[in-house]
Amino acid sequence: MASAPTASVPALELAGLLKAFGNTVAVDRLSLTVPTGSFYGLVGPNGAGKTTTLSMATGLLRPDAGTAAVHGVDVWSDPVAAKAMIGNLADGIRLFDRLTGEQLITYSGMMFGLPREELAGRTADLLELMDLTAAAGTPVADYSAGMTKKIALACALVHAPRLLVLDEPFESVDPVSAANIEDVLRGYTASGGTVIVSSHSMDLVQRMCDHVAIIAAGRVLVAGTVDEVRAGATLQDRFLELVGGRTHTEGPAWLRQS
Ligand SMILES: Nc1ncnc2c1ncn2[C@@H]1O[C@H](COP(=O)(O)OP(=O)(O)OP(=O)(O)O)[C@@H](O)[C@H]1O
Fold first, then answer.
1. Which residue puts its alpha carbon closest to atom 29 of ligand 1?
2. pLDDT of residue 1
3. Does domain 12-240 have CATH number 3.40.50.300?
4. Which residues contact 26 (CB under 8 A, 6 or more apart)?
5. Of 127, 169, 243, 254, which sees the most CB atoms within 10 A?
6. What is the C-alpha separation between 227 and 206, in angstroms, rounded?
7. Residue 59 near ligand 1, beta carbon < 6 Å
8. Is the pLDDT reported for residue 17 higher than 50?
9. How distant is the alpha carbon of residue 35 from its chain centre?
10. Superkingdom of the source (predicted)?
11. What is the pLDDT of residue 7?
12. Ligand 1 center–CA 124 separation, angstroms
């Protein structure tokens, strides 16, 4: 294991990550440095390679080439030490949804070796934060999409990780819960935690993130502070300018109603 990390060691360092699925190069020698304490947004069009990148960064998907290090610990050569520092809200991961929400958070905490007494308090706090206390005893299989997202987020937070990796965390989440979660994430980064978040919401990224990378076709088009990347425009305009793809059409003639 690496020596005690310092603020000068990035929370996440991706170097030359490469992943191909058959003939599709999903991630094309992507490098990115996420400074400790930053709130880092990852944006890009559908199929840009965001989820594949985050899967390789968190030890879920083995890269064809390149490295990922969390606070200086290589994710693929020392996965146990690296994963202990990561809280991961992954896209499309199956949860053990026969468990109740309370059981699922408890189970996640036990996986990280938290003692039961400590876990009970953390679980109650997280259920309250996510507005899920009333659904604590309900199997997760019976949760709505937004409730499922929130319970998965609670599971990612329970071991107080140093780095939070969140793939589309606010998708389907109601505005009140989203605002509460945003407050908690702000407090978390203010206390030295690091968040990397992939999102299609430019508003959210512009509001919450201090850094952003725009990814397309498996590569970083631009990365830096939000102000550097915006370069005087809105993030939305900058994104459209860099990524392209607007069609400026009213749609096919057969769809028009008059
Ligand atoms: N398991 C897989 N098998 C085959 N192709 C895959 C697989 N996972 C991803 N891909 C392909 O890799 C590319 C990148 O996909 P990825 O899911 O990483 O993009 P994304 O930026 O997260 O997209 P979205 O914003 O739509 O979620 C796409 O072309 C996708 O079709």
1. 47
2. 43
3. yes
4. 19, 20, 49, 52, 218
5. 169
6. 9
7. no
8. yes
9. 15
10. Bacteria
11. 57
12. 36
- Within 10 angstroms of residue 3's Cβ, the number of other Cβ atoms is 7
- Measured by CA distance, the residue closest to atom 26 of ligand 1 is 46
Tokens 């190069």 identify what position? Answer: 25
Ligand 1 centroid – CA 136 distance (Å): 33
Please give the distance, rounded to the nearest whole angstrom, from the Cα atom of residue 197 to the centre of ligand 1: 17
Q: How far apart are CA 145 and CA 142, in angstroms?
A: 9
Say what the pTM is: 0.91
Q: Closest Cα to atom 16, ligand 1: which residue?
A: 49
Q: Where are the domains of the chain?
A: 12-240
Q: How far is the CA of 51 from the centre of ligand 1 (A)?
A: 7
Q: Is 171 in the pocket of ligand 1 (CB under 6 A)?
A: no
Q: What is the pLDDT of residue 77?
A: 95
217 alpha carbon – ligand 1 mean position (Å):
10
Measure the CA–CA gap between 51 and 49, rounded to whole angstroms: 6
Quote the DSSP letter at residue 162.
Answer: S
pLDDT at residue 187 in the model = 87
- How does pLDDT run across 165-200, given as a tens digit for each residue? 999 888 888 888 888 888 889 989 999 999 999 999
Where are the alpha helices (H) located in 21-167, listed in sequence order?
50-57, 79-84, 101-111, 116-129, 145-157
By the 10 Å C-beta count (0-12 exposed, 13-18 middle, 19+ buried), 148 is classed as middle
**52 ligand 1 Cβ < 6 A:** yes
The question of ipTM being above 0.85 is answered as yes
Residue 2 pLDDT > 50: no
Q: Using a 6 Å cutoff on CB, does residue 168 contact ligand 1?
A: no
State the closest ligand 1 atom to the C-alpha of 54, by its place in the atom list counted from 1.
Answer: 18
What number is the average pLDDT over the span 73-88? 95
